Structures are given as structure tokens and as C-alpha cells.
Amino acid sequence: MMKLIKLFKPYAFWVVVVFGLLFVEAMTDLALPDYMSNIVNNGIVSGDTGYILAEGGKMLLVALLGAVCTIAVGYLSARLAAGTARNLRHDVFRKVERFSNAEFDHFSTASLITRTTNDIQQIQMLSVMALRFVFYAPIMGIGGVIRAVGKSSNLSWIIAVAVLVVIGFVLVIFALSVPRFKRVQKLVDKLNLVTRESLTGMMVIRAFNTQRREEERFDEVNRDLTRITLFVNRIMVFMMPVMMLIMNGVQLLIIWIGAGQVDLGGIQVGDMMAFMQYAMQIIMSFLMISVMFIMLPRASVSAQRINEVLETEPVIRDKEVPARFPEDFKGIVEFKDVTFAYPGADEPALKHISFTAKPGETTAFIGSTGSGKSTLVNLIARFYDVTEGQILIDGVDIRDVSQHELRERIGFVPQKGVLFSGTIRSNLQYAKEDASDDELRMAAEIAQAADFIGDKEAGYDSEIAQGGGNVSGGQKQRLSIARALVKRAPIYIFDDSFSALDFKTDAALRRALKRETGHSTMLLVAQRISTIMGAEQIIVLDDGGIAGIGTHQELMKCCDVYREIAQSQLSEKELDA
Ligand code: ADP
Ligand code: MG
């Protein structure tokens, strides 16, 4: 609740305006029954048409004023709630953008999506209601009681009874629906997860003919969600007629008992009618407050879920006063006894890694899958922080500089090529928005992508589908490489980026790279010995540790792991070369 109030802070002025309007509206609503009782008591009873018209006219004006306020409040509160929801979405998105991989591993993508959409919508719905009810209902309730008692204190007990019945009834509904409301958000999460997995894995699902199983998985979650939503909605549907019954019963009771009193001359007919309307207003205001209380738990679950995201501090943070790299940046990458374990993992994924990668040289990493190659290069871009030891670039610990400054110097080609929807041009310009056509062409040439881009009718303006679905794996890799090259970074990291290329393209690409980016520090993860044979330094990883460092010739002589990999891939003749 406090958080909700804080959300409205930027709109304080408009909130005050809404409250002002609501106050006027409440006053008009409270005044109307009075006019009516005057008309009945003094006009109709004595047959004074002039008085009826005059009072009736005033009553109409007051009602009109109330109506204008209602419309204005509806308009303003909808805008305010939409505005706060927008701000909240913005905050959540900005936070998520700053998340490091550790936080992404913690929250599932599906859950983050639900939190930015559905959960925020819950808050928005509650805000609209809260803006109206929180202020209006108490005024109506208290004002109604004061006025009703003024009209007839003899009948007041009826209101007390009615309010007690309403509260009792609402408590029952509360007990039934709140625990279920809380589960709804979790189920929405799950539904999103299953849907996402099915949609992204559609090809695999078809290939394995597991549509039936996936459908069942989906149906199960869908059924749970439907059941619980139905239940909650049925309760709500049940609520309306019961409330009407209570209200009509109260009216009946007032007329019944009131008529007797009118007969005895204890109360005027008009006052009795006004009393009846005040009684309705009081019950309505209690109802509004109760509905708020029913909505509150669901929204507060949503609020907590959003808060969880907002309050998660990324484990990878910039220093308050970040250091800078030296003016004359060279790009010497040095690992000093680095050990790293993934959050929550027992075994470290990397153990005591030390080496230095120099500018103008290629440092290659090879090893079986799961040996820690990707983990190692991800550490350089600081997607995770080292557990022990240090990574230095030009002698500066990478944790001391800002993430922006660090990544500014790195051209990173991830293991899984990711393209964004747009055109080839927009993807290549990703690192450098103002890159000229020449720069793009140059990068594409080096990445061996120029040919297939040229073959396309629209060339650089060819559409790229969501996730790069309309280019082949190898083309995706080459575009990812070109994208990194456009950046002209002093340090390049290629994480297994050549694996989907045929040997010929692989070789041509490496030659072009050597020629054009020879002065950069090149860190290259590869599967194929032929890709890395020419590297100045090859690091053999085995189960998270270094099994050998050296050139191809050196390693062939002294490193068993390396020799095994080489022998499995190359012919005798190639090995001797
Ligand atoms: P490679 O790239 O050499 O195939 P990785 O660096 O991807 O290997 O993985 C090294 C080890 O770290 C593997 O045992 C893998 O299971 C583990 N690992 C990789 N990513 C994560 C992660 N996000 N959370 C936990 N463990 C991980
Ligand atoms: Mg890998």
C-alpha cells in the first residue's frame, strides 16, 4: 500500500484534483436525498407546484454537477493509473536490462514477462478503484450515517443491522477467494512458461511427434487456471444478487417500519424516503471498501512480485567511482589464478586459470564440451564475476572499470548467434548506429557474409525475421561476426563462432581476420583443430582446468589431451604439417 502511494508521487497534483472532485461528488450525492425529502414533505403533500419546480430545478443542477464530477474522476483516474503503470513497466524493464546472467538464472523469462505485463495490470486495476473508493467511500459512509440519523434516529438500528450483515457476508467471500487469488498469478506464470517453451520448441515438438504430450502439459495448466478463475468469478457473480437482496430487504424493512411511524406522525414521508436513500449509500460505501479488501490481496501479491524484481540488486555492479583504462589502450588480457563457480553450483566450472593474451596474437581455447570454454570467455565480458583470482585488462581489474567501458572495448560473438528482427543493415549497425555502408561492406567481407548478402534481392535491406529465423545457422554466425567487426574493438572474442561454417569459409574468414584485425587481441574458442592450428597460443581446457598451453607443435609433443583431440580430427599428413 505504501508502495502504491509512492507510485502516485509524480502525479500528486492530479491526485489532489481527483480527491477534490470526489469530495464535490460525495457532497452532491449526500445532498440529493435532502432535496427529495423537501419536495415530498413541502411540495407534494401541500400540492405546491411552484415549490416542486423550484426545488426540482435545484436538485437537477446538483445532480448534473455530480455527474460531471463522476465523469471527470473516471477520466482522470484511468489516466493516472495508466501513467503509473507505464512508469512501473519502465522501471521493471530498466532493472531487468541491468540484470546479469546470475539474476536471469534466478527469475525465469516467462515470469519476468508476466511481471511486466499481467502483474502490473493488476496494480493498474487496483489503482483505478483505489483512487475512487479510498476517499469517496468513507465520506459517503460517515456523511450518510450523520444525515440518516438526523432524519430519523428511530430507524437507525436497521442500518446497523444491514452493515453487520454486509460485513459478515464479505468476510465469507474474503475467506473463500483470497487464497485462490494468490495462486492465480503463479498459474499465469506457469501458463506463460509452457506456452513459450512450446512456441520456441515447435520444430522439435513436431520432429519428435510429442504434440500430444505438450498439449496435455498445456491443458493441465490451462485447466488449473480456468478452474480457479471460474471459482473466483462465480463468487463475485454470487455477490451481486446477494447484495441486491440485502439492499432490497433493507428497503422493505425501512418502508415497513417507517410506514407505521409515518402513521403515528413520528416521521414525515419525505424523511423516510431520504432515510432509505442514505441507508443505500451507507451500504454501498461499505461494499466498495470490502471490494477493495478483496482486490487488495491479489494486487499485493502482484506488487510483491514486481517489488522482488525492483529490489534485486544485480550481483554485477559498477563501482561508485569506476576506474578508467589507460589512455593508450592495448588490450592485454590477463587471467591471474581465476577460479569460478556458477551461483549455487558445488563444483567450480573453472579452476586456477592463469594466462596472458597479447594484442596482435590469437589465443585459442579448445577442449571437450562442458570443459568451461564459454564460461571462461563470458568472464572476460563480465557476464559473471570471478569467484577467486583476478582478470586484468591492461593491468586494470575489470571489476574496477564500468561495464560500459569494458564492453565498449570488446567485440563479442556469442556461441549462439542472436539476431534481432529488422534488416541486415540494422543488425550490423547494432554496435555503431552511424556506421557507413563502406564500413558495413568491409565487415561483411571479412566475415565472408558479403556474398550471400549480395545474392539477396534487397541486399543490406533484406528483412531479418524474429530471432534470425530466416537465415541459416552459418549465415547467422557470419552476420554475428560482421556485427562485432563493425565495432572495431581492440579485443575480439569468438565463442565457437566458426562451428557452423564449412572448412573453406572458415579458412577464408580466418585469413581475412588476420589481415584486417591483426593488431587486436583475439580470443578464439573452437572445436576444430584446423581452426586454431595457426594460433600463437593455444590453451587446452579439461574439466575446468588448464591441461596445456603452447603452440600447436609444442602441445602435440607434450599435451596428451591435445594430441588426442588432434588425432581424432586430422590425418597423419595434416598432423605433420
Ligand atoms: P563449453 O563452452 O566448454 O562447452 P561451458 O563453459 O558452457 O562449456 O560449461 C562449463 C560447465 O559449466 C558445464 O559443466 C556446464 O554444465 C556449466 N554451466 C554452464 N552454464 C551454466 C549456468 N548458467 N549455470 C550453471 N552451470 C552452468
Ligand atoms: Mg561453449
Which percent range describes the beta-strand content?
5-15%
Distance between the termini: 73 Å
Shape: elongated
Q: Classify the oligomer.
A: single chain
| Largest beta-sheet details | 6 strands, mixed
Given as residue ranges, the uncertain stretches (5+ residues, pLDDT < 50) are none
Amount of helix: 55-70%
**Could you say which small molecules are bound to this protein?**
adenosine-5'-diphosphate, magnesium ion
State mean pLDDT (0 to 100 scale).
Answer: 88
The radius of gyration is 36 Å
Number of strands: 12
Q: How are the strands of the largest sheet arranged?
A: 6-9-10-3-11-12
How would the blueprint of this fold be written?
Elements: H1 2-7, H2 12-44, H3 49-98, H4 101-106, H5 109-151, H6 156-200, H7 202-207, H8 211-264, H9 269-311, E1 333-340, E2 350-357, E3 362-366, H10 373-380, E4 388-393, E5 396-397, H11 403-408, E6 410-413, E7 422-423, H12 424-428, H13 437-446, H14 450-455, E8 463-464, H15 473-486, E9 491-495, H16 503-516, E10 521-525, H17 529-532, E11 537-542, E12 545-550, H18 552-558, H19 560-569, H20 572-576
Helix pairs in contact: 2-3, 2-5, 2-9, 3-5, 5-6, 5-9, 6-8, 6-9, 8-9, 13-15, 18-19
The chain binds adenosine-5'-diphosphate and magnesium ion.
Written account of the structure:
The mean pLDDT is 88. By secondary structure, the chain is an alpha/beta fold. Helix 16 links the parallel strand 9 and strand 10. Helices cover 65% and strands 10% of the residues. Helix 2 runs parallel beside helix 5. The protein binds adenosine-5'-diphosphate and magnesium ion (MG). The site of magnesium ion has 4 residues, from helix 10.
